[in-house]
């Protein structure tokens, strides 16, 4: 009894140590942010840098609070900008995932289809999405459709490539298992290759999200009447660095939130994988 | 052939099977003119040195590969149903134990309640009760191979093909699984064709042992082990004698 109590107490001490270390690490991270903001604030207030070029963090925060309710000076409150951007990004992105993932899976599975599509895909693949902007303006004008199209292109490529590779990497023994169980070619695709490709397909979907979100800003900088990219652009035109910084940080935070949501979804879909 | 006065029924006939591959611009002969009769409900072991074409032979029987020459005949009925237990642990990592076992029945469109009942029986038979909803990553190597065995049984096969199923297991688990596979076979009699390169395993399991030569594989000798009573003892004199006889006759793998 004495011996086991000793073990329990030593385990508890270990556990407490670990918890303490965790707090310390968190404090280090927090300190890094605070010091960074502090130096920034000081640099502006003590006029080390020209306040025309960059606002202080406190000013940026005030601008953020202001933008929640004030449509001035760029024509819309922050919520409207966010909604406008999210709408564009999600339409283009979801379309890319819904078309890109099945296409990649099929290309990986059907050799003839692969050979048919691959040469064209290989030429189009390295073209950066923003290089499509002029053409899409000619084709689709400067409205929502054109921007969605550019975002679609940016998100489409990683969805296709990763799903394709996922199918190619399917363990051939598992395909043999399905064959000996009497599965047809299509059934093997559905029951073996597709689930086996899911982890890589999700990697593609995650990369695509980053691409979509960053391309969005580029698209909006060209032509828009609302949206986070538009807001940043207006900030520049008006010489308001606080608006620019609020826009940039909002883009960053929303990008991080979307990635976190996607990770949750991935863990649900691919529950079978080892953590 | 007859045992207990009963005529043994031939379940499967391999007739002059040969298989060659075209590899690196050279013809590579894997199997050379093998003819075997396999009897109903016997435990047939195909023993041969590593890389000698044993797996190729099983793939031909299962229909995964076509022979270059010769034929595989099922005299009883034309439709062949084989269950395959693979060398590497070939369980679907995204399916639970239950879903893995019922896979073949699901493909056939058997209704859920019925296939669940059957799969449950087999899961219990292979000793995995309580792990029905576990994913393969939570199982040990031996347990995964049990899933493979249950899945092969679940398609209700006429013939069970096992391709070095315990090759990747540690020695202790291997002995345990050999006993298990015999226990399962006694309970659910099937014709089993078991491929191995391990002489001890062959003598422990087989009713008959077909000894193959090195590549290209041909039948070198057929041993009938009916004199050895089951359960067999690894250190029994007769067991050891048989082991030695085969050992002397077996080609070395390079």
From TrEMBL, chain A:
Subcellular location: Cell membrane
Residue ranges of every copy of the ABC transmembrane type-1 domain listed in the record: 82-262
PANTHER family: ABC TRANSPORTER PERMEASE PROTEIN MJ0413-RELATED, ALKANE SULFONATE ABC TRANSPORTER-RELATED, MEMBRANE SUBUNIT
CDD domains assigned: TM_PBP2
Alphabetical keyword list: Cell membrane, Membrane, Transmembrane, Transmembrane helix, Transport
Bilayer-crossing regions: 25-43, 90-111, 123-143, 149-167, 188-207, 243-262
Protein name: Taurine ABC transporter permease TauC
Coiled coil (UniProt feature): none
Membrane topology label: Multi-pass membrane protein
Record keyword Disulfide bond present: no
Xref: Pfam families: BPD_transp_1
Family: Belongs to the binding-protein-dependent transport system permease family.
InterPro entries the UniProt entry points to: MetI-like, MetI-like_sf
Automatic annotation (TrEMBL), chain B:
SMART domains listed in its UniProt record: AAA
Segments forming domain ABC transporter: 12-239
CDD domains with a match to the protein in the record: ABC_NrtD_SsuB_transporters (cd03293)
Keyword set, alphabetical order: ATP-binding, Nucleotide-binding, Transport
GO molecular function annotation: ATP binding
Chain coiled-coil ranges: none
Name of the protein in its database record: ABC transporter ATP-binding protein
UniProt xrefs under Pfam families: ABC_tran (PF00005)
């Amino acid at each position: 009894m004495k011996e086991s109590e000793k073990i329990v107490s030593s385990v508890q001490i270990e556990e407490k140590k670990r918890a303490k270390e965790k707090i310390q690490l968190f404090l280090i991270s927090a300190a890094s942010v605070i010091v960074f903001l502090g130096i920034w604030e000081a640099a502006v207030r003590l006029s080390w840098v020209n306040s025309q070029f960059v606002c202080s963090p406190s000013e940026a925060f005030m601008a953020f609070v202001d933008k929640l309710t004030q449509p001035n000076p760029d024509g819309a409150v922050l919520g409207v900008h966010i909604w406008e951007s999210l709408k564009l990004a999600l339409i283009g992105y979801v379309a890319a995932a819904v078309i890109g993932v099945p296409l990649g899976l099929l290309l990986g599975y059907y050799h003839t289809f692969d050979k048919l599509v691959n040469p064209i895909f290989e030429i189009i693949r390295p073209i950066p999405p923003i290089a499509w902007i002029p053409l899409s303006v000619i084709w689709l004008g400067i409205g929502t459709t054109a921007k969605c199209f550019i975002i679609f292109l940016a998100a489409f490529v990683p969805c296709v490539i990763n799903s394709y590779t996922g199918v190619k990497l399917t363990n051939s023994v598992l395909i043999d298992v399905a064959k000996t169980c009497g599965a047809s070619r299509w059934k093997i695709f559905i029951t073996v290759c597709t689930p086996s490709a899911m982890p890589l397909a999700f990697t593609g979907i995650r990369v695509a999200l980053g691409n979509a979100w960053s391309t969005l800003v580029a698209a909006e900088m060209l032509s828009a009447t609302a949206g986070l990219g538009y807001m940043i652009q207006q900030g520049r035109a008006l010489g308001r660095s606080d608006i620019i910084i609020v826009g940039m940080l909002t883009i960053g935070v929303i990008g991080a939130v979307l990635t976190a949501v996607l990770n949750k979804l991935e863990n649900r879909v691919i529950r079978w994988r080892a953590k | 052939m007859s045992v207990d006065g009963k005529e043994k029924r031939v379940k499967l006939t391999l007739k002059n099977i040969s298989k060659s591959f075209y590899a690196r611009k050279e013809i590579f002969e894997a199997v050379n003119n093998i003819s075997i009769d396999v009897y109903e409900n016997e435990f047939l072991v195909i023993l041969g040195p590593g890389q000698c074409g044993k797996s190729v032979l099983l793939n031909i029987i299962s229909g995964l590969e076509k022979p270059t020459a010769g034929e595989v005949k099922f005299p009883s009925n034309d439709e062949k149903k084989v269950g395959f237990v693979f060398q590497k642990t070939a369980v679907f990592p995204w399916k639970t134990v239950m879903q893995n076992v019922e896979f073949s029945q699901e493909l056939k469109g058997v209704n859920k309640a019925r296939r669940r009942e059957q799969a449950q029986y087999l899961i219990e038979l292979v000793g995995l009760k309580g792990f029905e909803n576990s994913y393969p990553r939570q199982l040990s190597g031996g347990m995964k191979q049990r899933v493979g065995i249950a899945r092969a049984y679940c398609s209700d096969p006429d013939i069970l093909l096992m391709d070095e199923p315990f090759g990747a297991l540690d020695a202790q688990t291997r002995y345990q699984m050999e006993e298990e596979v015999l226990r399962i076979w006694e309970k659910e009699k099937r014709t089993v064709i078991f491929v191995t390169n391990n002489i001890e395993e062959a003598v422990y399991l087989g009713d008959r042992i077909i000894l193959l030569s090195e590549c290209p594989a041909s039948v070198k000798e057929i041993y009938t082990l009916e004199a050895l009573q089951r359960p067999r003892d690894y250190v029994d004199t007769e067991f050891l004698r048989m082991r030695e006889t085969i050992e002397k006759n077996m080609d070395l793998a390079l």
